[in-house]
C-alpha cells in the first residue's frame, strides 16, 4: 500500500516518537500489507518533508514533523501548549475512526501527554508507581536503576476535549511502556479495559468470551423488562425512556452490572433486538413494540 502520513504517524508512535526514516520505512513494511513502493524509505522521507514546514517540499497542510537537517531522524513537531484542539465527532465505540483521522487524533493525544511540564508534575506526585494496567513496578524489577520510571498516558479521548480545554493531572494514568503501547495500538482502549483484559482468567480470549456472555445476560434482562412493561398492553408498545425510568434499576441488579454505562448498554441491546427482529420501531423516537 502507498506510504501515507497515517502510516508514518503510527510508525513514529510505535517507535517511541522519534526515528530515522529508514527505521520508519522498515516498520511500515513489517506491519502493513504489500505491495510497497520500490523504495519505501524514499517514500517515507518524501511524505515527512511534505508535512514539515522547514522543507521546500512542504505542501502547506498540517505541519506534523520536524528533523535536524541531514540527521535523517524525524519526530513529531514540538508540542506548543496553546493551539486550539479541534473537537472531533465522538463515535459511540471508536470503531468509526477512519485511519487517517485516527492517526491525527493519536498524534494529538500523544503530543498532549508529552507536555514536559505536565508530565514532570504528574511524576513528582507519584512514589514508586505501579503500572495502572498490569501492576509492573520498575523499582521492584530493576532496583535503583528503574526507580520512579513510568510513562504518563492521557486518559481522555481527544474527541472529548473541547477547544482550549487543559489537561488536569487526574486526566493522566501511570503506565509501563508495554501497556502504553498496547493502549495506543488499540486506541481508543481505556486503561480500565486493558486492566480487565490482563486480569481475565483466560486472557484476552476469555475476556471476549465473557463480554459476549454478559451481553446475552443483558439481552435477557432487557427482554424480561420489556415483558413486564408491555404485559396487559394490547398494542405491546413501550419506550426507551420508560425502560430507563421504571426498569433500569432492576436490569442493573439482574446483570450485576458495574462500571459500564447502563443506559447506553441498554440502548445497544435495544438496537440488537431490533436488528434481530424481536422488537420494532413505532416512531423512530424511542418508541418500540414487541411482536
Ligand atoms: Zn503495564
Ligand atoms: Zn498514551
Structure report:
The chain is extended, with a radius of gyration of 24 Å. 47% of the residues lie in helices and 10% in strands. The relative contact order is 0.08. The termini are far apart. The strands form 3 sheets. A 3-stranded antiparallel beta sheet has the order 1-3-2. A 3-stranded antiparallel beta sheet has the order 6-8-7. It has a two-stranded antiparallel sheet with strand order 4-5. The chain has 11 helices and 8 strands. The protein has helices spanning 5-14, 21-31, 40-50, 99-112, 116-124, 138-142, 177-185, 191-199, 203-230, 240-255, 262-275; strands at residues 18-20, 65-67, 73-76, 151-154, 172-175, 237-239, 279-281, 287-290. α2 packs across α3 (40-50). The chain has 3 domains: 5-76; 99-199, no CATH class; 203-290, Arc Repressor Mutant, subunit A (Orthogonal Bundle). The chain is mainly α and 291 residues long. β7 (279-281) and β8 (287-290) form a beta hairpin. The chain binds zinc ion (2 copies). The site of one zinc ion has 5 residues, from β4 and α7.
Write a brief caption for the model.
The protein has helices at residues 5-14, 21-31, 40-50, 99-112, 116-124, 138-142, 177-185, 191-199, 203-230, 240-255, 262-275, and strands at 18-20, 65-67, 73-76, 151-154, 172-175, 237-239, 279-281, 287-290.
Amino acid at each position: 500500500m502507498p506510504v501515507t502520513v497515517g502510516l508514518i504517524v503510527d510508525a513514529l508512535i510505535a517507535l517511541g516518537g522519534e526515528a530515522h526514516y529508514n527505521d520508519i520505512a522498515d516498520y511500515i513494511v513489517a506491519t502493513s500489507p504489500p505491495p510497497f513502493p520500490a523504495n519505501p524509505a524514499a517514500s517515507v522521507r518524501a511524505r515527512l518533508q511534505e508535512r514539515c514546514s522547514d522543507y521546500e517540499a512542504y505542501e502547506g497542510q498540517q505541519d506534523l514533523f520536524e528533523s535536524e537537517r541531514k540527521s535523517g531522524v524525524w519526530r513529531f513537531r514540538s508540542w506548543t501548549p496553546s493551539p486550539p484542539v479541534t473537537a472531533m465527532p465522538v463515535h459511540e465505540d471508536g470503531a468509526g475512526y477512519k485511519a487517517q483521522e485516527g492517526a491525527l487524533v493519536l498524534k494529538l493525544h500523544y503530543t498532549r501527554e508529552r507536555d514536559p511540564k505536565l508530565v514532570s508534575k504528574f511524576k513528582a506526585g507519584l512514589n514508586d508507581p505501579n503500572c495502572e494496567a498490569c501492576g509492573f513496578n520498575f523499582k521492584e524489577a530493576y532496583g535503583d536503576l528503574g526507580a520512579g520510571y513510568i510513562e504518563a498516558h492521557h486518559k481522555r479521548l481527544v474527541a472529548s476535549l473541547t477547544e482550549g480545554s487543559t489537561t488536569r493531572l487526574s486526566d493522566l494514568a501511570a503506565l509501563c511502556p508495554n501497556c502504553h503501547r498496547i493502549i495506543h495500538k488499540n486506541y481508543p482502549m481505556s486503561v480500565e479495559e486493558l486492566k480487565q483484559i490482563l486480569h481475565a482468567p483466560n486472557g484476552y480470549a476469555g475476556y471476549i468470551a465473557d463480554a459476549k456472555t454478559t451481553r446475552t445476560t443483558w439481552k435477557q434482562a432487557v427482554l424480561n423488562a420489556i415483558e413486564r412493561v408491555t404485559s396487559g398492553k394490547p398494542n405491546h408498545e413501550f419506550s426507551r425512556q420508560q425502560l430507563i425510568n421504571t426498569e433500569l434499576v432492576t436490569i442493573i441488579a439482574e446483570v450485576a452490572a458495574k462500571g459500564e454505562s447502563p443506559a447506553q448498554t441498554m440502548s445497544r441491546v435495544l438496537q440488537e433486538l431490533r436488528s434481530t427482529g424481536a422488537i420494532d420501531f413505532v416512531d423512530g423516537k424511542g418508541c418500540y413494540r414487541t411482536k
